[in-house]
Amino acid sequence: MSLSTLAKRFLAPVVYYGGLTEFFSPLSKDHALVLMYHRVLDEAEVNDAVHPGMYVTRSTFELQLQYLSKRYHVVTLQDLQEWLAGKKTFPKIPCAITFDDGWEDNYHNAFPLLQTYRMPATVFLITNQMGGPGMLTWEQVREMEERGISFGSHTATHAILPTLTPTEIREELARSKEKLQKELKHPSDWFCYPKGQFSPEVCRLAREYYVAALATGGGAVSKGDDPFRIRRIGIHDDVSRTIPLLACRLGLIF
Description:
Number of domains: 1
Shape: globular
Largest sheet: 7 strands, mixed
CATH topology: TIM Barrel
Number of strands: 11
CATH architecture: Alpha-Beta Barrel
Radius of gyration: 18 Å
Distance between the termini: 17 Å
Number of helices: 10
CATH superfamily: Glycoside hydrolase/deacetylase
CATH class: Alpha Beta
């Protein structure tokens, strides 16, 4: 465990229980948050082969949903798009939940909890990998869609787009979109860059296929931001396993 992680685990309760979260946070109702998850694992599934930055446990995820339901207005990406355009407002800071890749544990562990807490989320699929080992099947995806979960493109093969030619980028964008349109009733118009990596050329081409795109990089979203460079906050167990840690991370304190 790094010194940085240890320091955060020590400082987070001091900041949170000392009532300093609101004082130090730069967030206001002029901001929104987009959260980036990958996997939600049962505690028994966690082992050294799973990278700490790739998962939260099921119990951690439930704790987080409870906190989000009280502190934020959890919205769909369509809601966020309208908020960015100034067409919609919310009583609390809007927050969207997203998942990358399309892991099967999203169905077994995340989906039931999202249903319990009546929260929307969008899963971005690597379309060529669906049905492979550890990944969602299209049958599972369709069941989740019927019950309110949205699905968008994370490319066909998870290629790092800035390393490709324009023709190859178009192929990744078009093939994944066509597959989603074939398999689903209402695929998301949002796109998600693999590894959060993009370039001006990638953004230009993504605009031809989608209405907005998600990157990484942390930080809040503000009205007027480029919709094809939307920042997300990575949520994983080692930096968000307690409410104080989560509150500090979402408040952009650390």
